[in-house]
Amino acid sequence: MNGDGGGELAEDDDWFWRFCSLSVEKYPNNQMLGRREIVNGKPGEYIWMTYKVVYDIVLKVGASIRSCGIDEVDEEFEGVELEIMLYLQKKGGMRGLTAMADHSAKEKDELLKTLHGAAKYLKTIVSFGKVTSQQKEEVEKFGVAIYSWHEFLSLGENRHFNLPVKKKTDICTIMYTSGTTGDPKGVMISNNSIVTLIAGVDHLLGSVNQSLTVNDVYLSYLPLAHIFDRVIEEGFISHGASIGFWRGDVKLLVEDLGELKPTIFFAVPRIKQGLGGNVRIILSGAAPLASHVEEFLRVVSCSVVLQGYGLTETCAGTFISIPDELNMLGTVGPPVPNVDVCLESVPEMGYDALSRTPRGEICIRGNVLFSGYYKREDLTKEVLTDGWFHTGDIGEWQPNGSMKIIDRKKNIFKLSQGEYVAVENLENIYGIVSDIDSIWVYGNSFESFLIAIINPNQKAVEQWAEENGISVDFNALCENPKVKEHFLGELTKVAKEKKLKGFEFIKALHLDAVPFDMERDLITPTFKKKRPQLLKYYQGIIDNLYKSAK
């Protein structure tokens, strides 16, 4: 890899570590990582650690980890989150785990509760907060050591360990998916995938005269489990640029932005001055950006607005829009230079990759692809065919070479705030309501909440109406606001009982007196819902539901 981050890399180099080291050699005194100084409870300016200081700390951390008896095989699992740690414990085969986190008092208590079953897998706990003597005694009963951050760093003092020899094909990290439809999946990402992705983004930004420089500043507020945020940070490191961190409170985010004055921002922001005044590039990801919002941002922020698309399995960015190409509004742009992309027909959904307007499942091939799901070869085989990764997203090629995301092959989608929704699971839960014969839950990546189309049980509705002094026919009852309010209340009751998350609650609904049927092409002969056809049929009603709910 060439560029600001350093020189050529040899075949046997650990690529990711190597270009970090090269940045330290080239920019030892550059500001690398910063956080706001808190004085007497009030936030002050950002204070910074230089590349050389961070590098020295990293070496100390590595030495401390090795001092705990963790070998290089286990290093892939350092810093796992609590819920992921419990999953790894359940799956087995993870010994000597090191859980590192800034635990609150409540989180520490929750962690301690898990030790009875986790102790044979968990060896060391490192807390960035304080550790009381009582907590130490509690943990040591299970043969597990717990350290504060400073105690942990001292373990590696005056100890030297040779760095393990790595290759570009070695696994650099394992990113765990959210596990929306089941257990979390460990996405194995190689050194080669990360460096290839960064090289592609560098090439793209350079081609539009927006190359990263040592003067760029980035605000990090997404968790490291978010692949796009992670590779952006790694890209910044390769150029000797600066990364500032937020204070962890979304209500204070705008204030942190104003103080840091980033040059590049990843989110859907409001105006440029609210971002500190120095923003030159806005990256939008995690969910589609509506065309009118994208156009508005380009005008009012005086910034380059880039919309991208990618998955953890593709090491984040796979498509990125081109600046100042207004005919790409509403799309995620063309593929980055280092991937191959094709569409595969999905006939059961009516999508033909060979039609005049090509539509189908987006499939991706290239060095950015993940190396498989950890210990889940079965799942890996489901999504990888002859080197092509099947994303599950339905795309439409545009005449200008950009891609537009139009659907989801599997019934999972994101809401506008980036939360995943497993719609079939929700329909099973809400179907518990005895007054409901059938329910179709709908949401999309341009809205923040869910709505539903319901076939109510006629006998149950008429009985409820009689008990509540409403005397009209069934069709009229389905239009009655009080009846709709009753159903919304029942759905909310079930959602609370099943402890659904806030974004999984139904906020508006429509009652259809006519059951979903084959005559309207809304269900299959086996009574499965045809979701694209349902959307087309109820589009007007859906639009009105969102409009009225807002």
From TrEMBL:
SUPFAM superfamilies: Acetyl-CoA synthetase-like. Pathway: Phytoalexin biosynthesis; 3,4',5-trihydroxystilbene biosynthesis; 3,4',5-trihydroxystilbene from trans-4-coumarate: step 1/2. Residues 109-374 form the AMP-dependent synthetase/ligase domain. The keyword Magnesium does not apply. Pfam families: AMP-binding. The lineage of its organism: Eukaryota, Viridiplantae, Streptophyta, Embryophyta, Tracheophyta. It comes from Penstemon davidsonii. PANTHER family: LONG CHAIN ACYL-COA SYNTHETASE 4, LONG-CHAIN-FATTY-ACID--COA LIGASE. This is AMP-dependent synthetase/ligase domain-containing protein. The keyword Aminoacyl-tRNA synthetase does not apply. Keywords: Phenylpropanoid metabolism.
